[in-house]
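<instruction>
Derive C-alpha cells from the sequence

<record> Sequence and C-alpha cells follow
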Amino acid sequence: MAPLAPIDLCGMVQSQMETKDSTPRFHLYRLVLSQSTITDDVLQHQWEGDGTIENPYLVEWLHDDPRDPHQMQEWLKWSITLLQAASFLSITFASSSLSAANPQIQDHFGVSSELVVADTSLFVLAFAIGPAVWAPLSELYGRQVIYFITYGMTTLFAGATIASPNIATLLVLRFLSAAFGSSAISNAGGVVSDMYTARDRGLATIAFIGAPFLGPSLGPIACDFLAVSKGWKWVQGLTTIFNAVVFLVGICLIPETYSPVLLQKRAAKLSKMTGAVYKSRLDVEQGHKTAGQVFTKTMVRPWILLFLEPIVLLLSIYMAIIYGTMYMEFAAFPIVFEEARHWPQSTSGLSFLGMMIGQILGCAYSILDDGRYKKIADSISFGRPPPEARLIPAMVGAVTLPIGLFWFAWTNFPRIHWIVCQIGTVLFGFSHVSIFLSVVNYLVDGYTVYAASALAGNAVIRALFGAAFPLFTTPMYDRLGIHWGSSISAFLAAACLPFPWIFYKYGPAIRRHCRYAAESARQLDAMTDRMRVQAEQKIAGEKSSEQSAKSASSPSAAANEEPNLSRKTTCLERHVMALGRLPRQ
C-alpha cells in the first residue's frame, strides 16, 4: 500500500461542496502521457515560501486540482481500479491455469509428477520475492512506469514459455513471468490508496482483491478442456493473450496516481519554467528518500512488524494457512475427483466451480458489510471507526471456514453425490474471501502509515505457504487418504478460529501495547487534530469575511445568513470526516 500523504482536506472539501462540477478536467490522454502538466491556476498560485534554496516554494495539491488522484472523476477512478484488478486477476489465473495441463507436461517432457507440481510452487514463490523489489521502486518512480515495464516483461516471458525445449526452461520462464507480474500485488493496492479515502476504500478494495481470488479457481475451469484437446502450449497461449490484452489496455488508460512523484515532477517543471526554486511539500516535510533508504525500509521493516507485532504475526499465519489450502486444492482435487470419482480430466476442472461460487458470495457479503461500515463512519464527526469495525466478515468467515473444510473432507466418498462435497468448497471460497478482505482492511486501518510494511510481511508468509502446501499434498493424500488428508487444513483452520474474535474484543488494548500500532495511532491523532484546527480556522475565517461583507452592505442580511453559515459548518465537518484519510483511532 502506498504511504498516506497529507493534503489540504478542508480546501478540497469546500471546493467539492460549493462547486462540485467546477473542477477543470484533463482529457484522459493528457493524464496518461503527462505527469507534470501545469495549468494557469498552478502557475499563478501563491505558494508558501519565497522561491529560494533556503526557503523554496512548497508545492501541494490545489483545492480544485485536476491532477490530484483523489479529485479524479469517479468513472475514471473505477476504470483504473478495474484495470488494476484485471492485471491482478491475470497473474493469479496464470498461477493455476497450467496445473490443468500437468499430465500433458509430464508426458511431453518425460518427468515426474512431483516436478510438474513444483511449477505451481515456484510460480507462487515469486509472489513473495517480486513485491519486495517493485514496491520500493514504485515509491521512487511511481506506479505507471513500474506497471508498463513489469507487465510488458511478464507478457514476454509468458509467451516465451511456449517454446520451452525442456522442463527446466519452462520452470525458469514461468518463475520470471510471475516475478514481474507480481508487481500487481503491491501496485494495485497502492493505486487504490492513491485515489480513495478511507471511507470509500472498501468497495475499491473488494474489486482489486476480490477479483484476483477468482483467478486460481478460474484457471483449471477454463483450461482443463483446452489442455486435453490442444495441449499445454495452448494453455500458455491463452495466458499470454490474457496478459497482453490487459497490458495493452493499461498502457492506454492507466495514468500515474502516486502523489509524491506527481508533486515532485510538478515542482521540477515549475522550477524550470520560472527559474525559482520549487519543492514538493511532501519531500520537505517527510524528507527526500534515497533508493537505499527506501529499499532498506522495505526489506527490513516488514520482518520487524511480522515478528514483533502479534496482530500482524497471528493474522499473517491465519491468512497463510488459508492461502496455502487454496493452492493445495490444485493437487488435491485431481486426486479426489479424477482418481477417486473417476472424472475425466477434461471436466475435472469443473470441481473448482464450488470454490469460485463461494468466492463470489464472499465478495457480495463484503459489499453489504461495507455499507454497515459506512454508516458507522458517517456517524462520526471527525476521523473514522476503530479498525476492529472491519473484523465482522472475518469473524463470520472464521466460523464457516473449518465447517466447509471438514464438510469437504468427510463427504468426498465416491458413493456420495459430488454436489454434497461441493457445498463444502462453496463455504471455503466464501470464508477465504471474507477473511482476506476483512483482515487486509483491518491491517491498513490499524497500521496506516506502516500498512505497506504490515501487508508486505503478510504477503511473504502467504506466498511461502502457498508455495509449500502443493509440494506435500500428494504424499500426504497417499499416506492419509482423501478424508484425513483433507482434514489437516480443517484442523489448522479450527485452531485459528478465535483470532478475529480475540482481536475484535481485545484489539484496542493489544494495539496500545504494540510499538508500531501505537506509534501509528499517535501520528494519526496529531494529524487529525491539525486537520480539525485547519477546518475550524477556515470556517471561522469565511464566517468573519462574509459577516464583514454583509454588515457593510446590510446588517439585517448578515443576521439572516447566520443560520445558513451554521448549516454550512455542519456539512463541511461531515464531509471532512468522510474524506479524511488520517483518522483518530
